[in-house]
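dude i think i finally got it to work??
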Amino acid sequence: MAVAEFRFYEELNDFLTPARRRRAFDYDCAPHATVKNAVEALGVPHTEVELLIVNGESVDFSYRVAAGDRISVYPQFEGFDVTPLLRVRARPLRNPRFIADAHLGALAKYLRAAGFDALYRNDYRDQEVAAIAAAEHRIVLSRDRALLMQKDITHGCFVRAQRPLAQLEEVLARLDLFGTVAPFTRCLVCNAPLRSLPYTEAVGRVPPESARCHDEFFTCDVCNRVYWAGSHTRRLGAVLAKVLARHSHIAMTE
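look at this
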C-alpha cells in the first residue's frame, strides 16, 4: 500500500465524506494505483477534475501514486486560462456539445432552447452515453457518479441541482457559457439547427391565425416542425431571460 496525502478543492469536496472535506488527509492507495484510480476510489469522478499537482508538479491521470506523495486535486477551470499547466484532458470544453443521461430530459430541452447542441433520449443506457460522448466529443451531463467514472468519458459535468432551471443555470455558469447563448436556434424536439422559413412556405404549415399574426418563421429540416413567436415560445423565452438576467446581476455585483 502507498500512503499519500490528498487535498481536494472547491466543489470536489461535495463528493467526499464529511471528515475529508476541505482538509488534507492520508489515504492508503492500492499497490501501483494511478492517481485517477485513487481519486475515483475516493468518490470523485475523473470528469470533474481539471488539474492534478503532485509534490508541486502537474501530472496526468496515468501518474502512479507513491508513498509520501502530496496530491492536490482541482476542479474544472473553464473560466480561466491555465494552459501553461498540464491538463488531465487533451482539450478544454470550449466546443459545448452535450449528451444528457436518461434522467435529465428537461435540462436537455432548456439547453436546446438556449441554442446548445444537446442529445437526449429517455432510454439511453450508460454504455451508449459513453460511446456517443467518446465518438462525438460530447460533454456528458449526469447526476450519476458511476456513469461519469466510465473510462471512455473524457468530459462531463455532475449536475448538482435538482430542478431543471437551476440545472441549466448551473451548467451555463460552470462552463462559462452565458456569453454564447443563442435562444431558439435549435429544434426543441430533435436538436437539429433551425433555419429561417419564408412566409410563403410557412402559410399552409401553420394555423391560419398564426399566419395572420406573425411574419417570421423557422423550421427544422429533420422533423419538419415550424416555430414562431407564439405563446409557448414567449413563455420559454421569458424563462431564459430570467436566468440570463440573474447571471448579469450576479456578475455586476461581484
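Helices lie at 35-41, 105-113, 126-136, 145-148, 164-174, 199-202, 208-213, 231-253.
im so relieved honestly
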